[in-house]
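Hi P.,

Sorry for the delay on this. The queue was packed all week, but I finally got your sequence through. Input first:
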Amino acid sequence: MTVLFVNACIRGDESRTLKLCREYLARFDGVEDVEEVDLAALGLSPFSAEMVASRSEKQLACDWDDPIFALSRQFAAADDIVIGAPYWDLSFPAALKVYIEHVSVCELAFHYTEDARCEGLCKARRLTYITTCGGFVEGANFGYEYFCGIARMFGIPEVRFVAAEGLDVVGIDVEAQMDKARETMRKLD
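Then the structure:
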């Protein structure tokens, strides 16, 4: 079983989101492979017109071994996907959107059927979205909602959500808030 950890915790070891992700990923001890994609280290660029043209040309040629498709192939092949992303500006760090731009490849992550329906091709049985928030989002985590849509498009049947909120509120018990998220993680199979 391959677990893909998409690390969008741009602050590195200082990230409370990353701390929760590492605790969650510890449950996979003994799993053949936990692959981490560190978006801060990867330094992806958004697609330019030239990049889109080049990728489209390679798609038409079915040149799926080209390195431009490596992230999409990795994502589509994973059995379990964990997204770690702090809550920034109503969603998540921009690096994560750029990553999805690289992953979202027709004929690898999804395709269209003869009757023009989008059908997912990803192998993952679930996607777990882990986040932390400085304030209280009150049910409006647009980052999580975005990944619910991505999962539907890519054919991932289950999406799960873990959040520690209110971590920057003056006077709040940060560890108690983190413990609430840990309890949510414990309940996930």
